[in-house]
């Protein structure tokens, strides 16, 4: 009983590690991106003033909740003061010239500049007692906090007409949370996606976020961007990009791990012989001699067939960072989240879309989810089914507790991984569910082809052997 509990805890620990590592790639989001995300939540239209956005804006809902909490809200005088400061700062950004003689903000959209002015601001630089601003080194809330202090010391406004500390903390924390939850920010050029104006990132800049981000995440996202634009940004174009990139990534993986993958597939082919060996030593779990003899015979069989039993782990070690990087690229690619499939947004949460019964797109979401779940189930179970079929074809053997225990453990790991993937599939965007479905189809096809080739090779060997004997 203790062994079983320990085994379950190890499996749960493994899944927790997978879950943790799946979020190890950093989101390629700049300060400017965060400002644009926040501004998008304000539902800002030209002509609107700071703090006086419509009922759909985040500030409106923040003010309603803050009022219920008894916080001191910003007054009209404070909002007018902030609007004046924002307008002046936008002019400064447009006129700013850097050390290279460039005007980086001259051609930027007004909405983009307003977002930086409202939610960030250049960092202060003090040299020889003179304070200036580095307009290209933005920091969140720099302007807001600076102007808030100015307003408090202003003879016309003063502390009484400014929001209190509780409101400021609540206001900034809410917007920080909004910006942190937005992950689809990878794009090679400045472009607007779903109302959010995102800053273009270069391959060199991707390395600043991390080695995996530069080496794998950005190139995959770049391919998605190029293919989606080539196919057309109409939903089907994004799906075509997902399909092509998945094929490329899986093709590279197959080529790099072909030797180890063949060893894995050969092991499936050898299951009948392994079963015969294990059946010879039914007490291997408790008898040290039997355990040693069984291990020796198994190793001899592996050596004879040129199989590295560690091949499975080598493949996993090689595949896992690539799997995580592709996951990060798919989640982070802005272009994937900009289209829709027969009215269903590719950026929409799978679960939210499935249970949005007011819209007919929920049917499409259910179809995608069921296909994804079925594909993952078959791709994970197919090797087991093939293995079981080969073992069942062997003449009735003595039951080996060691073999049975190993099979149960493997089955339990696969089942828990399947549950984990389906659970994650519910929380991820529709685009990711499509990616997982395509990936599972490739896995199924790979297993069938390789097993078929190995079976053909095995039968050919038997035929040659039979003819030689004859």
Structure description:
- By secondary structure, the protein is mostly helical.
- The protein folds into two domains: 2-26 and 206-469, no CATH class; 31-182, no CATH class.
- The chain contains 18 helices and six strands.
- It has helices spanning 2-21, 31-41, 58-69, 76-95, 110-119, 142-153, 165-180, 203-209, 211-231, 236-256, 258-269, 271-280, 288-304, 311-332, 350-354, 361-392, 401-427, 430-469, and strands at residues 122-127, 130-138, 191-193, 196-198, 340-341, 344-345.
- A two-stranded antiparallel ribbon has the order 1-2. A two-stranded antiparallel ribbon has the order 3-4. It has a two-stranded antiparallel ribbon with strand order 5-6.
- Strand 5 (340-341) and strand 6 form a beta hairpin.
- Helix 11 (258-269) packs across helix 18, helix 12 packs across helix 16 and helix 16 packs parallel to helix 18.
- Residues 19-23 and 463-467 have low confidence and may be disordered.
């Amino acid at each position: 009983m203790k062994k079983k509990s320990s085994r379950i805890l190890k499996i749960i620990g493994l899944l927790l590690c997978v879950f943790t590592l799946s979020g190890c790639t950093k989101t390629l989001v700049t300060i400017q991106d965060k400002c644009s995300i926040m501004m998008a939540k304000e539902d800002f239209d030209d002509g609107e003033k700071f703090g006086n956005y419509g009922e759909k804006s985040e500030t409106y809902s923040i003010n309603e909740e803050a009022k219920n909490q008894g916080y001191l809200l910003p007054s009209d005088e404070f909002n007018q003061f902030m609007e004046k400061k924002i307008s002046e700062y936008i002019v400064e950004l447009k006129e700013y010239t850097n050390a290279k003689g460039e005007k980086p903000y001259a051609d930027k959209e007004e909405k983009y500049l307003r977002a930086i002015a409202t939610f960030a601001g250049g960092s202060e630089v003090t040299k020889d007692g003179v304070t200036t601003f580095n307009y290209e080194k933005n920091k969140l809330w720099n302007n807001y906090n600076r102007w808030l202090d100015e307003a408090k010391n202003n003879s016309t406004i003063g502390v009484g007409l400014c929001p209190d500390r509780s409101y400021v903390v609540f206001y900034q924390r809410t917007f920080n949370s909004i910006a942190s939850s937005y992950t689809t920010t990878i794009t090679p050029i400045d472009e607007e996606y779903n109302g959010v104006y995102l800053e273009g990132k270069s391959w060199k800049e991707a390395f600043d976020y991390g080695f995996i981000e530069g080496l794998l995440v950005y190139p995959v996202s770049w391919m998605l961007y190029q293919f989606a634009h080539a196919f057309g940004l109409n939903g089907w174009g994004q799906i075509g990009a997902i399909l092509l990139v998945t094929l490329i990534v899986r093709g590279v993986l197959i080529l790099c791990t072909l030797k180890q993958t063949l060893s894995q597939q050969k092991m499936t082919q050898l299951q009948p012989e392994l079963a015969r060996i294990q059946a010879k030593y039914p007490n291997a779990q408790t008898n040290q001699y039997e355990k040693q003899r069984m291990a020796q015979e198994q190793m001899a069989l592996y050596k004879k067939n040129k199989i590295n039993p560690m091949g499975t782990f080598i493949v996993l070690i090689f595949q896992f960072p690539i799997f995580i990087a592709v996951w990060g690229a798919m989640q982070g690619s802005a272009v994937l989240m900009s289209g829709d499939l027969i009215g269903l947004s590719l950026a929409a949460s799978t679960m939210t879309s499935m249970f949005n019964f007011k819209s007919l797109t929920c049917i499409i979401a259910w179809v995608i989810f069921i296909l994804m779940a079925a594909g993952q189930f078959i791709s994970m179970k197919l090797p087991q089914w093939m293995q079981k079929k080969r073992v069942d074809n062997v003449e009735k053997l003595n039951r080996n507790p060691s073999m049975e225990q190993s099979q149960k453990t493997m089955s339990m790991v696969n089942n828990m991984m399947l549950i984990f993937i389906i659970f994650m599939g519910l929380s991820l965007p529709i685009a990711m569910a499509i990616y997982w479905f395509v990936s599972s189809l490739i896995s199924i096809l790979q297993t069938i082809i390789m097993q078929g080739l190995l079976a053909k090779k095995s039968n050919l060997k038997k035929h040659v052997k039979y003819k030689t004997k004859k």
